[in-house]
Write a structure and sequence with these properties.
- This protein is mainly beta.
- The chain is built from 2 helices and 19 strands.
- It folds into 2 domains: about 120 residues, Sandwich (Jelly Rolls), CATH 2.60.120; about 70 residues, Jelly Rolls (Sandwich), CATH 2.60.120.10.
- Helices cover about 10% and strands about 45% of the residues.
- The strands form 5 sheets. A 6-stranded antiparallel sheet has the order 1-8-7-10-5-4. The chain has a 5-stranded antiparallel sheet with strand order 11-12-19-15-16, with no helix packed on it. A 4-stranded mixed sheet has the order 2-9-6-3.
- The longest helix has 11 residues.
- It is globular, with a radius of gyration of 17 Å.
- The two termini are about 20 Å apart.
Length: about 210
């Protein structure tokens, strides 16, 4: 089961959506690998992560499929219109690997997730410094998930991430769902929000 974490004030609502969308599969239904599920598109892989773009049309029921790796699913489209649906965009849910399930989108609008599978940490040298505008929403032995929010015109100065990570835009910037792998110790240029607010999630395997 995917277990949304993100912001406590909306946790109950997020769990309700997750329960409806992510269902354990019947043991007598043959499972396929995640790459064979038609709506799970593998878009990147290296020694540290795999990235899948998951798009579920309205009322879609997936094939029974298996997740081998621990993973983080970042919500890009919630399937729900209005303020309630907008509030759920950017939720990041961590799940331990080794499970098989069926996903159902019970809504009349599509759902989309960027799923980051965690293979191994990419660690550079040094201890790392707290990054500006970063809020850690989950930290455990497998992953650190951070949420970054910039108001219009706000800028994060150039900085350095010691560990490799995947960034996923959820609002503003180049557009929701744009992701990028950042290798360990790669200098990060300054990040500016421009005329619109910018929000993204960072997923760092540990």
């Amino acid at each position: 089961m995917i277990r949304p974490i993100a912001f406590p004030i909306l946790l109950t609502a997020a769990l309700a959506v997750a329960t409806a969308a992510w269902q354990p599969a019947s043991g007598d239904v043959p499972a396929v690998g995640i790459e064979q599920e038609p709506r799970h598109r593998l878009v990147f892989a290296n020694d540290f992560v795999r990235v899948l773009d998951v798009f579920l049309p309205a009322l879609y029921v997936s094939q029974n499929h298996t997740h081998v790796y621990d993973n983080v699913a970042v919500t890009i489209l919630s399937g729900i219109e209005g303020l309630q649906g907008q509030a759920r965009i950017g939720f990041a849910g961590y799940s331990r690997g080794g499970y098989t399930h069926v996903i159902t989108n019970p809504n009349n609008a599509p759902m989309r997730f960027i799923a980051v599978e965690l293979r191994a940490p990419d660690r550079g040298s040094g201890d790392g410094e707290p990054q500006p505008n970063h809020v850690t929403v989950l930290g455990n032995s497998k992953v650190r998930i951070s949420r970054v929010k910039l108001n219009p015109g706000e800028t994060i100065p150039a900085h350095l991430h010691v560990a490799g990570y995947v960034s996923v835009v959820v609002r503003g910037g180049e557009g929701p769902g744009i992701w990028k792998w950042h290798p360990a110790s790669e200098p990060s240029a300054s990040v500016a929000a421009g005329k619109q607010a910018l929000e993204f999630v960072e997923v760092e395997p540990r």
